[in-house]
Design goal:
The protein folds into 2 domains: about 90 residues, no CATH class; about 210 residues, no CATH class. Helices cover about 50% and strands about 15% of the residues. It is globular and about 50 Å long. About 5% of the residues have low confidence.
């Protein structure tokens, strides 16, 4: 009986998800984003588990905020999160001019130089802004992105996301289950990433949450947090440059949606090897860089899961 219920639930999720994707693509631009804002307001009023977890995470980035101010920042964060989803649903219909014209970059010279010299680059990202838009821009203006996606359920939703990211020029690999071996991914995933990097490729990876169960504990925003060690491991093994990358939104009157994406490249550095000591030090340096980006634009940090050690296994505080 439970398997039947799981199948029914999965089917409902798939149908609803794909219908929403189609609706958002068909709506006029401003209407689609207005719908996203409306859904965000509804979610904030409901104060579900994800919204409350986001509030608890943002409290670390905004330690001086009182309860009312933190609630306002959480509402802005949910609006940013829904904006990301509207962007993602509509992104396959954007032409190159739209993709490139609604991106602004900061500090990308060192990365361009390394890639031009045939050296691999590993980027560590937080769940900030619209990383899919940044990946599509990179395909046109920097380098084809190879990255890893979280394994989603149901499988049909995962397949749709894989096709979407392939359509916008991203090479996407699927993150293995936790019980599969390999640092930051199973043997197949890790080997492909290393191959791309040794050939001078660009591998940005979401790193502010440990999906593999083999991450490291760092100080993030002043508290112990468990994050991914994969970026540092890959850089140490392949001799690639490593850096933190922040991706956020900013208002833009000349953008059809009223927003543009900003990609901020941090200072690249080298990781001598993949020893535990070097990986831990490099991962802490990345966490420092990502923490700065989060503090600078907290509303764009779309982290609705537990990251901090103190929150693991504990329900978020009541709304």
């Amino acid at each position: 009986m439970s398997r039947l219920l799981d199948r029914v639930r999965d089917r409902v999720v798939v149908v609803g998800y794909l219908a929403g994707w189609r609706l958002v693509r068909l709506l006029p631009e401003r209407t689609a984003y207005a719908l996203g804002d409306l859904v965000a307001r509804v979610l904030v009023r409901r104060g579900g588990r994800g919204v409350r977890r986001l509030r608890d995470n943002l409290a670390r980035a905004l330690p001086q905020a009182d309860a009312q101010e933190l609630r306002r920042w959480t509402a802005r964060g949910v609006e940013s999160y829904l904006r990301y989803w509207v962007d993602a649903f509509r992104l396959p219909d954007w032409d190159e001019q739209r993709v490139v014209g609604t991106i602004r970059t900061e500090g990308d010279a060192a990365v361009r130089e390394a890639l031009a010299q045939g050296r691999g680059v590993v980027g560590a990202l937080a769940h900030l802004g619209n990383w899919d838009h940044a990946g599509a821009w990179s395909h046109h203006r920097l380098a084809t992105v190879t990255t890893v996606a979280e394994r989603l359920r149901p499988e049909a939703v995962l397949r749709r996301f894989l096709r979407f990211r392939t359509e916008i020029g991203i090479e996407i690999l699927v993150h293995p289950h936790r019980d599969e071996p390999g640092p930051g991914g199973g043997p197949g995933v890790t080997e492909v990433l290393q191959e791309r990097l040794r050939a001078g490729g660009f591998v940005p990876l979401l790193a502010d949450r440990d999906l593999s169960g083999r991450g490291v504990t760092v100080d993030l925003l002043g508290e112990p947090a468990r994050v991914a060690s994969g970026p540092a491991v890959l850089a140490g093994r392949t001799g690639s440059l490593l850096l933190a990358i922040g991706i956020v939104y900013e208002r833009a009157a000349d953008s059809p949606s009223g927003w543009r994406t900003v990609v901020r490249f941090g200072e690249p550095f080298e990781v001598p090897d993949d020893s535990p000591e070097q990986v831990a030090a490099a991962t802490q340096r990345l966490a420092d860089g990502l923490g700065e980006q989060i503090r600078r634009d907290p509303a764009d940090w779309h982290m609705l899961q537990a990251v901090f050690v103190a929150d693991v296994g504990r329900e978020p505080r009541p709304w």
